[in-house]
Automatic annotation (TrEMBL):
Naturally occurring in which organism (per UniProt): Lethe distans
Domain Cytochrome oxidase subunit II copper A binding intervals: 92-223
Listed GO biological process terms: ATP synthesis coupled electron transport
UniProt-listed CDD domains: CcO_II_C (cd13912)
Protein name, per record: Cytochrome c oxidase subunit 2
Localization annotation: Mitochondrion inner membrane
Family under the similarity heading: Belongs to the cytochrome c oxidase subunit 2 family.
Primary role: Component of the cytochrome c oxidase, the last enzyme in the mitochondrial electron transport chain which drives oxidative phosphorylation. The respiratory chain contains 3 multisubunit complexes succinate dehydrogenase (complex II, CII), ubiquinol-cytochrome c oxidoreductase (cytochrome b-c1 complex, complex III, CIII) and cytochrome c oxidase (complex IV, CIV), that cooperate to transfer electrons derived from NADH and succinate to molecular oxygen, creating an electrochemical gradient over the inner membrane that drives transmembrane transport and the ATP synthase.
Required co-factors: Cu cation
InterPro entries for the chain: CcO_II, CcO_II-like_C, CcO_II_C, Copper_CuA, Cupredoxin, Cyt_c_oxidase_su2_TM_dom, Cyt_c_oxidase_su2_TM_sf
Membrane-topology descriptor: Multi-pass membrane protein
Amino acid sequence: MATWSNFNFQNSTSPLMEQIIFFHDHTLIILIITTILVSYLMVSLFFNKYINRFLMESQMIELIWTILPAITLIFIALPSLRLLYLLDELNNPLITLKSIGHQWYWSYEYSDFNNVEFDSYMTQFNNNNNFRLLDVDNRIILPMNNQIRILITATDVIHSWTVPSLGVKVDASPGRLNQTSFFINRPGIFFGQCSEICGANHSFMPIVIESISIKNFINWINNYS
Ligand code: CUA
């Protein structure tokens, strides 16, 4: 989860978020190298004495400084496209969770299991028994090591179902049903927040996922009243 002064990504809890972090690092390295090169060239211009009498035009250098950036961009574009298509893949999900955004709370439906449904409101902070501004009364329970499909919609305005450690960020629009999927590869409690400015209490509709083993999940769903 996010804590104070955390400038970096949260640790990934899904293979796709891992890939997103790899791509981010890869792109940032290219960006840093480019910035350093361009800064060096700009600074060196200040110390140039402009004494070359014959250099009016040069096809060769123009060719090089046109093609080099183009090749650099291909090195970013191809991994980016690969990620984009990987994120869109469904991979035979085991269960489907439906998430509905409201002003200002989320509600969830496990449509595979005789309509298990509940609302998920943020809870009041009470002296370190819960997480301030991030905890909810009814958490999403999901089995780890399984492909999970999530369907996202809203009833009033646009919300956004966002869980950074899973690499999921999908808008919840009224009248639309958006779909994505993820795979949680470890047990734990993972937090998210709405990321679409949706009104006065936008900051107070967090998302909490409890990732447990499939055995405990079946137990939970069987005993759900
Ligand atoms: Cu819902 Cu912001």
